[in-house]
Amino acid sequence: xxxxxxxxxxxxxxxxxxxxxxxxxxxxxxxxxxxxxxxxxxxxxxxxxxxxxxxxxxxxxxxxxxxxxxxxxxxxxxxxxxxxxxxxxxxxxxxxxxxxxxxxxxxxxxxxxxxxxxxxxxxxxxxxxxxxxxxxxxxxxxxxxxxxxxxxxxxxxxxxxxxxxxxxxxxxxxxxxxxxxxxxxxxxxxxxxxxxxxxxxxxxxxxxxxxxxxxxxxxxxxxxxxxxxxxxxxxxxxxxxxxxxxxxxxxxxxxxxxxxxxxxxxxxxxxxxxxxxxxxxxxxxxxxxxxxxxxxxxxxxxxxxxxxxxxxxxxxxxxxxxxxxxxxxxxxxxxxxxxxxxxxxxxxxxxxxxxxxxxxxxxxxxxxxxxxxxxxx
Length: 377
Description:
By secondary structure, the protein is α+β, with helices and mostly antiparallel strands.
């Protein structure tokens, strides 16, 4: 972790959830017709200090900017901006520091230095220090660029053909980002495996069998890591179990896997929904919500019983995750917790509410937490 990382900031999960709700409402009101790319992993979210220093970032934000989560912590936005954008960025951050909500376009360079035009939506979040706040920041990649982005990110009233054009543009941007990740991540890993295997083969031909064996052992480990990376990327794009089993069965399998992997935790699944009752475009988000909430419960709630409920309600579907743990809605989060727990939960909140659903967390003191999400379907 960077030595320059600001310390001592504590953020309540309830405040983070409320900030996410305010941010989404304000962003839609500010630019109601803005078209942007939504990553397969969900919203790109980070917590920044008022001067633009990263406190934490989720995996989507890190992937968008070409860094790991750990690499971003302590880094400043100004360090990632081209020289021509530094002064305007500093000015916009100064405005954000004195407003509850502020939205502005900027240009950042990822690890490769390739400029990325972005819209930043920033919502103030109170912290445990008097007079200090953090900025919950949503990074969006607009479908318009250059002067159009600087002057008006709002799309004109569009026909069905226009909407299809913007949808296609979004798909192309998403494909470009995934292609870059595959090239920079998996491509490099496979190249290294190839070189290691070739080196081992040369050693065998020279009679250096023991050295070759050690190198092949290291190659096998690298291959296992690469397989894990492939599974992670595929799972983020669309969990394989959804296509193999359908959503209800996939949720049941998830509960069993969570229970097997946790100590002294019973996970119960109650469901009265059939797979055909669930709109196809919601299935992946529903699965990810359950996965995120269950993992957080096991890691942080100190619960012994967790119940995942999925049922029909008037006009839609309701998913609930309830535990008998210590409750964390009002618990203060360190910046590390905000990344691993808080940003994960509000990322799920963004997924639910961006589809017109509702999301809530209720804490019952020492008697557990209830996470609820409802969708019109």
